[in-house]
Every structure is written in C-alpha cells, then in structure tokens.
Design brief:
Elements lengths: L1 H19 L26 E6 L5 E8 L18 E3 L3 E4 L2 E4 L2
Parallel strand pairs: 2-3
Antiparallel strand pairs: 1-2, 4-5
Length: 101
C-alpha cells in the first residue's frame, strides 16, 4: 500500500510546487482575448474594475463587500477566485470580510 501512496504523494507535491510558481512573462497578455466589461453597470462604490486572471491581463468587475459579507474562500490551485473584494478597511478571513487586525 505504501509503495503506491508514496509516488502519488510525491507527484501531487511536485504539481503543487509547479502550479504555485507561475511566472507572468513580459508578453504574457499579448495573445489573450478578454471579455468587454459594461462600464455603466460596473462602477463605484458598489463595484471596481481591476486586472484579473493569473497574469492580470483582462479587466474584471469586482463586487465590493462590507463587514460580515461573503468574500470567497481560500484560493484553490486552478480555480479562479470569486470576483469579490472587501472594502479597503477590511480583510477577507475565512470567507467573510472582517476588520483588519
């Protein structure tokens, strides 16, 4: 049993280290096709536009969350984070916007 689990564990660890080491080259966004953002619907104070994706190539309309509101869960490898940001005076902790400590 151990002979089977050990190679699988090593393979998973190497995948995690490789995925965490993504580096955006200078021309990473050259061939990226982005969806257009409706700037009339995405405006402050409820929303903000920022670069998103793994290299920040495309604009994303982020929703701004207040105290006690959902802000997402810890980022999983290969899964994009939800388009939600906490207000600047808050931090996302355990999926909820809370006062900075």
């Amino acid at each position: 049993m151990m002979k089977i689990l050990l190679p699988i564990f090593v393979l998973l660890c190497s995948y995690c280290l490789e995925a965490d080491a993504i580096v955006c080259l200078e021309n990473a966004c050259d061939n990226v096709i982005c969806k257009q953002i409706d700037k009339l619907l995405c405006k402050e104070p409820k929303f903000i536009i920022r670069g998103g994706g793994s290299c920040g190539c495309c604009e994303i309309c982020y929703s701004i969350a207040g105290p006690g509101e959902f802000c997402g869960f810890p980022i999983l490898l290969g899964v994009p984070p939800p388009p939600i940001l906490c207000r600047p005076d808050l931090q996302c902790k355990n999926g909820v916007c809370q006062k900075r400590t």
